[in-house]
Amino acid sequence: MGAGHAHPLYVHGHSPIHHLAPEVKIAAAVAYIAAAAVTPRQAIWAFGVQAAGVAAAIAVARLGPRFVLRRLTVVVPFVAFALCIPFIASGERIDVVGLSLSREGLWGAWNVVSKATIGASVSILLAGTTEVPRLLTGLSRLRVPGTLTAIAAFMVRYLEVIAGELGRMRTAMAARGYAPRWLWQARPVATSAGALFVRSYERGERVHAAMLSRGYTGTMPDLGGRRATAREWILAAAASGVAWLVALAAITGTGA
Amino acid sequence: MSAAVEIRGVHFTYPDGRTALSGLDLRVDVGERVALLGPNGAGKTTLALHLNGINLADAGSVHIGDLPVTEAVLADIRRRVGLVFQDADDQLFMPTVAEDVAFGPANLGLRGSELAARVTEALRAVGAADLGDRAPHHLSGGERRRVALATVLAMRPDVLVLDEPTSGLDPAGHRELVEVLRSLPITQLIITHDLPFALELCARSVIVDGGRVVADAPTSDILSDEELLGRHRLALPFGFDPRMARPSR
Amino acid sequence: MHAPDGFLNVGTAVTTGAISAGAVGASLRQMRTTLRDRQVPLAGLAAAFIFAAQMVNFPVAAGTTGHLLGGALAAILLGPAAGAVVVTVVVVVQALAFADGGLTALGYNVLNMAIVTAFGGYGVFALARRLLPGTASGVVAATAVAAGLSVPLSAMAFAIEWLFGATVPVPFDTVFGAMVGVHLLIGVGEGAISAMAVGAILAARPDLVHGARDLTPGQTADRARIGLRGVTIGAVLAATVLATVVSQFTASAPDGLERVGLDQGLMAEARDHPLASGPFAEYATDGVRNEQVSLAVAGGAGVAVTLLIGLGVGAAVRDRRTHGAAGDRRPTGV
Description:
The complex is a heterotrimer of chains A (256), B (249) and C (334). Chain A is mainly alpha-helical and 256 residues long.
């Protein structure tokens, strides 16, 4: 799960992809990933083309292959699962270097690994080139309820503050020699989590007071900002359109 | 002179039964800068929350100028009274400094170039004109405090209420804050434990304890009365002599 | 638990997306009536707390560590509707800003990690509260059970989605047995940490625990201190036995549910999808050996998850009524 990182993936930069309007980027990313998701697994060439497309965009964004590869490790647990599939899946079996594997399972593993990798790469590209507040602006322009994006904005704003408090609590416990090994020694950890909730909630109350004192009445003001141009939408449609053309070609090709 | 703030016999008890204010009286004139001193739990922050109607008095009255603080006029009161909270992280909740400064005036209905002008004006007033695009958590303590002040100044308040503005500031941040506050021609009520800071900025000080005003005099007199300070858990820093310090302007 | 893109088929992604969107929309409306104009700062800070809580590593055994998921905990602290919204925000931001979990997998990730844990977990909590004494200890014990079971509940939901949307011919029974078995054990940690956290909050600010609002101050003060070691070992034993039973039971039915699903038209929607026909047609290859058992497992799991979610929703709706009448009694200030 999201353990261990309080810092979003954003990498500061000035590439054309960094400057695209966020709603365009989100829509294009979802459309691109959806195209990969419907591509039939036998169409290995199609995944190749789609992966090349993402790689090209990552190069344009100058995110750096090492950054992307390191972040791609989030899919590792599922790849590990995928590697088990050929052993446990049912159906016709084939011999691969002395192991009896399920043919269906091998295809299934390939399917999971290829789609997850393309999806995660696109997500890394999106997160790497768009600051979180901009992502949330993009979401609300895509008609996600404003309350939800406002809550998300507050969460992101206070994540480091809360994580910092958590870090100091942990340090304080470690400084007094707390090094638990078993679940029944976890009471201090749980108690500090409880204290963290109380602190977070009370901060929420104070933030609410600060908002009220500046005239807040229950709805966040719309502070505007630049909206996507038609040119940006066309560019995004073209990018994800390529992935869809490939997917459709693969479907009609293998379906025949 | 006309009163900027007039508080008469205010009582307030929190829903959990804790009494915070018990018959507090205070008058602050227009353009005055007053320090609000007192021990922890004396009711200073609760009082601040009464000034712009976050808390409403159980008994007694609070007037801002000629306007009584009531539910019906909250929007106007909150424009007139700017509250700067103790923890700047509570005050700066928007993704960027500029958006945060815009939050108040946007709630007043300002938009577009008018709103942008307000933001620039407020940031300039606190010497933070170049910080607009920064994220609040990337600011230093001193910058954070000044920006928090700007979020309130953007509403062009008549009265400024600051809760512990110097806590956690390094000496340079402290100095910059003093200069900014001195440059603002607005009525100011400053809650603080920092007695030299009070002496530096405020000609008049008020001690609040047990939910009421227990002393109200020129700051230099209050700071010279060690017995009075001690009774209310206040103390001068070691080696500080108020008679040697340059009086405030 | 953050499934990547393409893990389940497109039909399932779209269907779960619609269910999640509906549930989150309803929860947002519900939350507006309970938190009012405080909803943005309070839910925002609570979401930051849940996000941070997922970074809290707690010891499991011999120095290995686990971490909280927080869905049931959020529901017990904030109520099921606000809890579901808060965890949804966490899951969505993890996908968008941290590339953790697929963007097109958000439908099932939100459903399993936010909706099922919050409403299902709160359902278990409401049931357990009814059986346990009305004291702080009762609330803590109910939290342990609810948070503990919310994890295998979430796994059950995933297994049921697998039944409709598998992209690989791994039988439902295997997935169900493995997922639920493993998650029963993970649930022990989740239950223990959540319960102790709620205990600590009850001691400091009992008014912040939504699931304990009915307690009087006297009842809140009534806290029994429990021997943690014995309880944990007992819970681990119970979970192990349950997990073994679940795995044994499903191991006897090694495959076949996709086939049953296809034959019965359960996957009709997915199959009818013009783009999905290619990849799906190939699943109808295996024989059905023990379809009654599989169907019973799937049916039972489905009924259990649905019932518990229903209970959670019921609790949320009751809330709305009492809140609508009593209004917001808490002060706005600090």
